[in-house]
Amino acid sequence: MRLGRVNATLKRLNLKARLKHADASTLDWWDGAPFDAILLDAPCSGSGVIRRHPDIKRLRRPSDIRDLASLQGRMLNTLWQTLAPGGTLVYATCSVIPEENADAIDAFLERTDDAKATTPGDVSWGRAAGVGRQLLPVVGGHDGFFYARLVKMA
User: What is the pLDDT of residues 4-56, one digit of tens each?
Assistant: First the structure.
């Protein structure tokens, strides 16, 4: 469903992109052609949409966050292999939990020598969260959201 919306937006803007939907924790799907840009819309707790879905609070357990953070780390590691030198990876979640966001990116940067954070810091929305930006849910407004932009050094 999301790729359909992305495709519709690309068409409306008269842009072209190669879109892939796959299990990003493995390389089974990859044909070896490196990507210039990757959006990792990582599976997360959904804690940022709690104002619209209050059942999230009752459905999540502490072990879910640990398991999700582990999966997010595997996905970052795997997708990084598919990114071309000089390419950009944007990591995004609809979570407000640091383990899924700033902590996940900090850990990735510590273990990945050729990764550099390039998230803009001079924007007026959200707040700094590690090397990323965090929006918190606002009643009558937007949901919680995190993103970090990373570049693969040549």
Answer: 898 899 999 999 888 888 899 999 999 999 999 999 999 998 888 887 888 87
Check 38, 94, 96, 135 and give the catalytic one. 94
- Please state, as a whole number, how many other Cβ atoms lie within 10 Å of the Cβ of residue 76: 25
Distance CA 104, CA 108 (A): 6
> Which three-class secondary structure state does DSSP give residue 58?
helix
Q: 144 with 48: CB under 8 angstroms?
A: yes
On the CB side of 52, CA atoms within 13 Å amount to 11
* 94 given a catalytic annotation: yes
Q: Which of 153, 154, 152, 146 is nearest to 72 (CA)?
A: 146
Structure tokens at 75: 């996905």
3-state SS class at 127: strand
